[in-house]
């Protein structure tokens, strides 16, 4: 089925001129973006030097604004549970944070719970209560 005319009958030359103009504008925006990104990275470095965490304002910063920890979550949970006694997910979450593990997640408890379920080195002794698996 043929399209209806919109009244904007343009020649190929006119369309090519519009396309060329948009390509020029796109290149200008890419250059501007690159300059701003470079400046943002400089500011992030200055913020880190001052002991802060970059990318904490509106929007997301570059470089993955997640918390950095010396040990993985699994390693931290393993240390928390080394005492041998079963603990609830809430207690494990609190102990992980008290041990120095940092997370920016609003649902850190859920992440801990998922990790405990997924990792074979942790076993559930009852619903929501976990301990280290004693098997080698």
Model description:
The chain is elongated. The relative contact order is 0.09. It has 4 helices and 3 strands; from the N terminus they run H-H-E-H-H-E-E. Strands 1-3-2 form a 3-stranded antiparallel beta sheet. A hairpin with a 2-residue loop joins strand 2 (122-126) and strand 3 (129-132). It is mainly alpha-helical and 136 residues long.
The chain-level mean pLDDT equals 83
- Please estimate the helix content: 40-55%
Which structural class should the secondary elements be placed in?
mainly alpha
What is the spatial order of strands in the main beta sheet? 1-3-2
Number of helices: 4
Question: What is the total tally of β strands?
Answer: 3
Major beta-sheet overview = 3 strands, antiparallel
Shape assignment: elongated
Rg: 27 Å
Q: What fraction of the residues are assigned to beta strands by DSSP? A: 5-15%
Distance from first to last alpha carbon:
71 Å
Q: What is the N-to-C order of secondary-structure elements (H for helix, E for strand)?
A: HHEHHEE
Low-confidence stretches: 58-62
Give the SSE map.
Blueprint: H1 12-49, H2 73-80, E1 87-88, H3 89-98, H4 108-118, E2 122-126, E3 129-132
Antiparallel strand pairs: 1-3, 2-3
Entry summary:
The chain has 136 residues and is mostly helical. It has four helices and three strands, in the order H-H-E-H-H-E-E.
Which structural traits does this protein have?
136 residues; 8% strand; mainly alpha; 3-stranded antiparallel sheet; 49% helix
């Amino acid at each position: 089925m043929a399209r209806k005319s919109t009244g904007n009958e343009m020649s190929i030359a006119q369309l090519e001129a519009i396309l060329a103009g948009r390509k020029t504008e796109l290149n200008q925006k890419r250059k501007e973006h690159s300059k701003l990104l470079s400046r943002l990275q400089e500011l992030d470095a200055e913020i880190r030097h001052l002991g802060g965490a970059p990318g904490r304002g509106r929007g997301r910063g570059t470089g993955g604004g997640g918390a950095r920890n010396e040990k993985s979550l699994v390693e931290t949970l393993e240390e928390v549970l080394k005492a041998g006694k079963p603990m609830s997910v809430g207690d494990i979450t609190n102990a992980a944070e008290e041990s120095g593990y940092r997370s920016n997640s609003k649902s850190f408890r859920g992440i801990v719970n998922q990790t405990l379920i997924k990792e074979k080195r942790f076993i559930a002794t009852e619903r929501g209560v976990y301990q280290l698996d004693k098997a080698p």
